[in-house]
Amino acid sequence: MLPLIGFALEQFVQWKFGMAGAASLLLLTIGVKARNSTCATIGAVVLALLLVQPATG
Asked: Fewer Cβ neighbours under 10 Å: the N or C end of the chain?
């Protein structure tokens, strides 16, 4: 069940934020799994910036 939720989250982020969202989610995931705070922080900050940017269109 958990891999299905992870896959759904990844697909949503990629649909909503494009390749930048997928890359930031990948950085966040790798950073958490590898216990690398730098990588996790960069991924989280980029994802947060994508979330708070004003919508264009």
From this structure: C
For the record, the structure tokens of 31 come out as: 């950073």
Mean pLDDT, to the nearest integer, of 15-25? 89
For the cut 90, the answer to whether the pLDDT of residue 27 exceeds it is: yes
State how far the Cα of 57 lies from the Cα of 39, in Å rounded to an integer.
31
Q: 2-40 burial, b if ≥16 CB within 10 A, otherwise e?
A: eeeeeeeeeeebeeebeeebebbbebbbebeeeeeeebb
Cβ of 51: how many Cβ atoms within 10 Å? 12
